[in-house]
Amino acid sequence: MALPPNFTPRLKSLVFTGKIDPNALNQSADVDGEIRALINTLLDEKIISETRHPKLSKPRYCPPPRRDLTDILYYRTDHLGPKIIYDFITCLLRALFYAKLLGFSSTLSRLTKHQKNTTVCTDEERLSELVYNFRRIRPYFYTASDHCYFDCIVIILFLRKYGFDPRWIFSVKTDPFEAHCWVQVGEVMATDTLGATVPFVPILVV
């Protein structure tokens, strides 16, 4: 959903500091009541905060993407074994639990805690093979179109099973305001294309 242009500047503090001033919203006559209610809901769910929480950890770093994996769809013919299908389904079920029952904040917390136990793998050839097989299985269960949040959860869980340390990138763009997220492993994009993400500015790395 795109927000009205006159509302977009008011999100500047949220984008750059992680905070938002609800008093400024309530004092503005041109802010739609539905948008004000949305902001209040985000505050109630603790997805956004009026002040920075003292226990928040330092954000993770992720380098700018160097390449995506669009080319892997055209030359790979790997056979899908039962293990990779089983791994996909187990990750899908966990992602459904996270997205439907835990909610946004708890999902981020769960995925952040797991980072300490992740054995890092940097083999781009193996990464390409896994992402290719992931994309072959995915259409039988859901489509990635308009489901970037859920798709990111599934592929993060999936790649961690094979020793990778994927980064979940949250980003925004203005004119109109829009939020988006994708997954990177190092400098390689696993869930999107370089061209599609150019207009977006990263604001959070998980």
What does this structure look like?
- The chain has 206 residues and is α+β, with helices and mostly antiparallel strands.
- The protein folds into two domains: 56 residues, no CATH class; 136 residues, no CATH class.
- The protein has eight helices and four strands, in the order αααααααβββαβ.
- Strands 3-2-1-4 form a four-stranded antiparallel sheet, covered by helices on one side.
- Helix 4 packs across helix 7.
Level of helix content?
40-55%
| Major β-sheet strand ordering | 3-2-1-4
* Rg for CA atoms: 18 Å
Low-confidence stretches: 1-13
**Integer average pLDDT:** 75
* SSE class: alpha+beta
Q: Total domains, how many?
A: 2
General form: globular
Distance between the termini: 23 Å
Report the biggest beta sheet as strand number plus sense, adding barrel if it closes. Answer: 4 strands, antiparallel
What's the total count of β strands? 4
Number of helices: 8
User: What is the ordering of alpha helices and beta strands?
Assistant: HHHHHHHEEEHE
